[in-house]
Amino acid sequence: MIQRWLGRLLLAFTLFSTGAIAAPFAYFTDKDPADSLRVAVPPAAADDMAMMALSLMGTPYKFGGTSPESGFDCSGLVQYIYRDISTVTLPRTAAEMANLAGRDVTTRELAVGDLLFFRLGKSSRINHVGVYIGEDRFVHAPRTGKNVQIDTLDNRYWMRYYDRARRLFTDDGNLHSYVNTPTNQRVQ
To answer: Which residues of the chain have pLDDT under 50?
Structure first.
């Protein structure tokens, strides 16, 4: 418990001292996302998502988990981060999240808050997701017996299974409100 607290404190200090956190978490409107997926989001909101992800470090992995109290699986973690920072409720699985409105980005274009998708093992479907936090690092809930942690994209294991990255926000800070490619053609 103390190790978890110290880790969060160190990460928060690092982000604040480098200027990565621009403001508190209150950026999103209270609009119902079912009415419109274009929720006003200042660009600093992505940094808030990274800070939220970092604050959940050390939370145990739990298959089907969707809260810090019960633990997280990978998609539950991402869903929780977006729900806490905005009024947006993301789909429940990594494969469904990969089909969200937004745009694919290359590893060179990655920005804080982008979602990273993986096909672990011999899966033909996307089955893992994490949140990019900058400097080739991402936060995710890896597997049973592990906790929410940071890993790097330059790690051979993760690059072996890397599929794509998606940016859910437009350059003006809004959520994309359309899907570029039909769901049945994106994830197999």
So the answer is: 1-42, 178-188
The set of long-range contacts for 144-147, using a CB threshold of 8 Å and a minimum separation of 24, is: 144/61, 144/63, 145/61, 146/61, 147/57, 147/58, 147/59, 147/60, 147/61
**Total Cβ atoms within 10 A of residue 150:** 15
Q: Which residue has the tokens 């998609």?
A: 75
Q: Is 28 known to be catalytic? A: no
Domains of the chain and CATH, by start: 2-24+43-170 (3.90.1720.10)
**pLDDT tens digit sequence for 153-169:** 999 999 999 999 998 87
Active-site residue, 176 included: no
The pLDDT of residue 45 is 75
Q: What is the dihedral angle through the alpha carbons of 114, 46, 59, 141, rounded to the nearest 10 degrees?
A: 0
Residues 167, 176: Cα–Cα separation, whole Å: 9
Catalytic hit among 53, 97, 128, 187? 128
* Residues 118-127: tens digit of each pLDDT: 999 999 999 9
Catalytic residue flag (residue 74): yes
Question: Which of the residues 140, 158, 167, 175 is marked catalytic?
Answer: 140
Tokens linked to 35: 């009415």
**E strand or H helix at 2:** helix 2-18
- pLDDT of amino acid 62: 97
From 21, 51, 74, 78, active-site residue = 74
